[in-house]
Amino acid sequence: xxxxxxxxxxxxxxxxxxxxxxxxxxxxxxxxxxxxxxxxxxxxxxxxxxxxxxxxxxxxxxxxxxxxxxxxxxxxxxxxxxxxxxxxxxxxxxxxxxxxxxxxxxxxxxxxxxxxxxxxxxxxxxxxxxxxxxxxxxxxx
Length: 141
Fold this sequence. Notes:
Layout: H1 2-10, H2 12-22, H3 24-29, H4 34-56, H5 68-81, H6 86-105, H7 113-127
């Protein structure tokens, strides 16, 4: 998390990623190669997903739908933490992990673990729609 945050905040490519995520057209007018930045972003995301898969694969059987639930839970963690916030995604992931471990430790809630996790997502979105560490953005019309 620290490395990715420093990369996004301190490097020229990271700042270009922020600019492209904010407004592609304006970033392109400022001389940023939008296609290159999008490719770099997808490469970083794919590399991080590959790293995560190295830890996940030994614990499960291979099937065509292997990554569907981890992908959905990763998205839920990002939403809980606040879209666009790297520390928020980490906090959301840790929170979902703790909820999963606690639910699986009790026999009565073990079969409802995923439902409880998504109920937590709904509750957090109802209370704080921008996520736990999300920042409000003004939309100019």
